[in-house]
Amino acid sequence: MSDDELGRFKRIDLRAYAASVGYQLDRRESWKGSSVLRHPNGDKIIVNRGTDGHYVYFSVRDDDDNGSIIDFIQRRNRVSLGVVRKILRPWIGLPPVPVPAFPALHTTSKDRIRVQTEFAKMQDVPRHPYLERERALPGWLLESERFAGRIRIDARGNAIFPHFDAEGLCGHEIKNKGFTGFSSGGSKGLWLSHELPGDNRLVFCESSIDALSHAVLFPDQHTRYASIGGKPNPTQPELIRAAAARLPAGSEVAGAMDADADGAKLVAVVRQAVELTGRDDLRFVVQEPLGFKDWNDQLRDRQQPLCLPVAQPSALKAG
Asked: What is the pTM of this model?
């Protein structure tokens, strides 16, 4: 019976208990499989739900501060397991204090939990030395509403670009001078800018840096941006289709990849995914750098004229 009681405790929604002791949900940093909560004292925790149904947490400020709701209470109150039992027994029935309602938290694999925890420890980037000095990306762009929180910096000074799939954060690209990598245990989804009211265009680029470069070269306050991150995996075409399907009626989708054979293959992937939306109102155009391999090359040499679309907009027909 004792072990059964502990198991029932671990299935208590840890977010609800944390809310009862002063933690608040950070909706901007939370996803379907991961909730970030903050306390006025500065503590920041990540809550996930394992495949066994148990809720677990990780403290961003202390790598040793993690575990179940039992560990959460003991770390913060310095109490015995017996006291923890007295605190949690009412939670097996009804909460002892009013707490906000939370949507169901999807189960999350250990790899994804590790990726999300690692990402939460990184800082948002209002300015980034590598991106500004080496890639000619202006600071005002990085801190704009469109890209806020979509570029971070890790302890080594790498530029970090989060990827999202249908369940939320799934991995992140790592960029620095002479180095490109991807988060250990993570998987590629799409790097996405924020979606704002009034948007009527979505630009797909090969890399996140190219998407940011495109935003500088062709400024448009109604354009969203996305990056595939190179050769697509089997899950990405559906993510591309879903991103295009979220556009308002009469919008445009641009395949703006590198000016080479691989770029042409990626354009074909995007075109097909957009056709699979079944929406005749979406227009698809192809755009590529003129005289340069990619958009960042063009940005770093702004003496060259800006490119023009190489295909005229055309209404898509459902395939």
From this structure: 0.69
Distances from the Cα of 6 to the Cα of 3, 119, 134, 228, 278, angstroms = 5, 30, 53, 44, 50
SS3 8: helix
Q: Which of 159, 214, 165 is nearest to 182 (CA)?
A: 159
Q: Which residue in 233, 270, 274, 242 sits closest to 255, CA to CA?
A: 270
Token pair of 116 as six digits: 């999300």
CA distance 286 to 269: 12
Half-sphere exposure of 131 (CA within 13 A, CB side): 28
What are 138-176's pLDDT values in tens digits?
999 988 999 998 999 998 899 999 999 998 899 999 999
The distance of Cα 223 from the centroid of its chain, to the nearest Å, equals 18
What are 188-220's pLDDT values in tens digits?
999 999 999 999 999 999 999 999 999 999 999
- 93: Cβ contacts below 8 Å, ≥ 6 apart: none
Is residue 38 classed as helix, strand or coil in its secondary structure?
strand
Angle 278-283-285 (CA atoms, 0-180°, nearest 5)?
Answer: 125
186: number of CA atoms within 13 Å, CB side? 26
